[in-house]
Amino acid sequence: MIDIEVLHRVANTLAERKKADPDASYVSSLYTKGTDAICKKVAEEAAETIMAAKDKDMLHLVWEVTDLWFHSMVLLAHHGLSVDDVLAEFRRREGVSGIDEKKSRSAV
Ligand SMILES: N=c1c2ncn([C@@H]3O[C@H](COP(=O)(O)OP(=O)(O)OP(=O)(O)O)[C@@H](O)[C@H]3O)c2ncn1[C@@H]1O[C@H](COP(=O)(O)O)[C@@H](O)[C@H]1O
C-alpha cells in the first residue's frame, strides 16, 4: 500500500504556513507573492518534468514530479483547497474508463 499520509502531513504544513513569516518559510513567501508567482513555479516544474522524461532521466523525473505535486499543492492551498479535494476527485473517477467518459461527453 502506498503511504499517502505524507501528502496529508505536507498539506497540514501548507495550511499552517498561512500564518508564517515569509522570510523564514518558502511556502509563506510563495503565498505572499500570490497566484501568478505560484502558477509560474507550477509551469516551470511541469516543463522540467517533461525535459526529464524526454531525457529518460528517471531520477530527475521523480524529483521534478515531486516538485510539480508540491507546487500544485501550494496552489490548491492558496485557493483554500487541499490534497483531499484532489483525492475525492480521484475517488469519483475511479473505475470510470477514460474512453467511456469521453464518449459520454460527446453524447451530451
Ligand atoms: N516539499 C517541499 C518542497 N519541494 C521543493 N521545495 C522547494 O521549492 C523551491 C523551488 O524549487 P526549484 O528547484 O525551482 O529551486 P530554485 O530554482 O532554487 O528556485 P527559484 O530560484 O527558481 O525560485 C526550492 O527552494 C525547494 O527547496 C519544497 N519546499 C518545501 N517543501 C515542504 O513544505 C514544507 C514547508 O516548507 P517551508 O515553508 O519552506 O518551511 C517543508 O517542510 C516540506 O515538507
From TrEMBL:
Principal location class: cytoplasm
Gene3D superfamilies registered for this protein in UniProt: MazG-like (1.10.287.1080)
GO MF annotations in UniProt: ATP binding; phosphoribosyl-ATP diphosphatase activity
Annotated catalysed reactions: 1-(5-phospho-beta-D-ribosyl)-ATP + H2O = 1-(5-phospho-beta-D-ribosyl)-5'-AMP + diphosphate + H(+)
Location within or outside the cell: Cytoplasm
Pfam families in the cross-refs: PRA-PH
Enzyme class: hydrolase
GO CC terms: cytoplasm
E.C. numbers: 3.6.1.31
Pathways involved: Amino-acid biosynthesis; L-histidine biosynthesis; L-histidine from 5-phospho-alpha-D-ribose 1-diphosphate: step 2/9
InterPro entries: HisE, PRib-ATP_PPHydrolase-like
Keyword Cell cycle attached: no
Transmembrane segments: none
Sorted UniProt keywords: Amino-acid biosynthesis, ATP-binding, Cytoplasm, Histidine biosynthesis, Hydrolase, Nucleotide-binding
One GO BP annotation of this record: L-histidine biosynthetic process
NCBIfam families found in the cross-reference section: histidine_hisI, PRK00400.1-3
Family: Belongs to the PRA-PH family.
Protein name: Phosphoribosyl-ATP pyrophosphatase
Lineage: Bacteria, Pseudomonadati, Pseudomonadota, Betaproteobacteria, Rhodocyclales
